Amino acid sequence: TGGGEILFGGNYLGRGPQLNAKATFVDSASAFRADATGDGHGGRIFVWSDDQAAVYGSLSARGNGSGTGGFVETSALGAFDVNPASVNVAGGTWLIDPTDITISALAGSNGSFNPLTGQFTPNPGAATAGVSTTAIVNALNALTSVIVYTRNPGAAGQGNITLSGPLTTGSVIAPTTLTLRAANNIIINGSITSSGLLSVNLEANNGTGPLGFEPSDDPNPVTGDISLVGTISLLAGTAQLSGVNFVMSGTSSVVSSGGSITGNFAGTVELQGLVRASSVNFQSGTDGTGNLNA
Fold it and tell me: In whole angstroms, what is the distance from residue 216 CA to residue 214 CA?
């Protein structure tokens, strides 16, 4: 039989019908398992908070036999620290859904969470929401596709995604995808490197929900740029980039040794770094008449 369903703090995107928790804490000794016990697909795990959350435990929704992995969501609308011991949804998806987020090696030390008061206190200068590069790399190596999705409800946060550390996978042996889908800007100060079948999607100012087919939560659909200071280096996967403007620094690069690179931007494209693949296709302007500078 397939895996079941675990709701901890709320349902998908906090949209009910269950009541939502204001604060959610999953300590490092906790393990949530929605694995298939017979031939079947993995189940679903939802960890949600309307305000503050910290997730440090293990979450698993693996398929069995002919089944594929299920779905895991770890999300909060306020201060948010995600450094799980493991997320294993091989063939499935892990969704991380804050308002603003920084992906770095420092997640797990962004602050302190008091489970007695339900209060998460960010360290001075720490990101409001953080997820560790190690947790994402481990999930991708386990063939779990990862979606980091930011919303911009107009109150807290701007909907930005920032990668500030190295994100280096091993030999991902099956097609797996890392998607950064931001309501506003995507800033790549770090690096994304894979020696396997990893593909990367960077979608700034995306007009859809986290899974690509729901309505967007973004009330301001005219801003959202990609700034690439770091590097993206893929072996056999594809890189798909989209947004309003795309700006590369002179030392940045997007390379796919065996895949393609595509870019679709409404405004200006500044290709100041290295872009190399078997197929490269960039379009600027909603009608293809924007500014493309290389």
Answer: 6
According to DSSP, residue 125 is labeled T
Q: Which residues pair with 142 in a beta bridge?
A: none
- Report residue 61: phi and psi, to 5°: -140, 60
Task: Assess contact for 17 and 57: CB atoms under 8 A.
Answer: no
Q: What's the token pair of residue 67?
A: 């089944």
Query: What is the C-alpha separation between 205 and 285, in angstroms, rounded?
Result: 15
Of 57, 49, 52, the residue nearest 32 (C-alpha) = 57
Omega before 153 within 30 of 0, i.e. cis: no
Q: How far apart are CA 256 and CA 231, in angstroms?
A: 11
Structure confidence by residue, pLDDT tens digits, 16-27: 899 999 888 898
| Residue 185 · residue 229 · CB < 8 Å | no
In angstroms, rounded to a whole number, what is the distance separating the alpha carbons of residues 114 and 208?
35
> Distance of alpha carbon 213 from its chain centroid, rounded?
16
Alpha-carbon distance 10 to 155, whole Å?
21
Taking residue 19's Cβ as centre, other Cβ atoms within 10 Å add up to 11
Q: Would the CA dihedral through 136, 138, 139, 143 be positive or negative?
A: positive
Q: Do the bridges between strand 111-114 and strand 119-122 make them parallel or antiparallel, or are there none, so unpaired?
A: antiparallel
Give tens-digit pLDDT for 91-118: 999 999 888 889 988 765 556 667 676 6
Q: How far apart are CA 109 and CA 140, in angstroms?
A: 22
Burial 231-240, CB ≥16 within 10 A → b, else e? bbbbbbbbbb
If you search the block for the tokens 């980039």, which residue do you land on? 241
What pTM did the predictor assign? Answer: 0.90
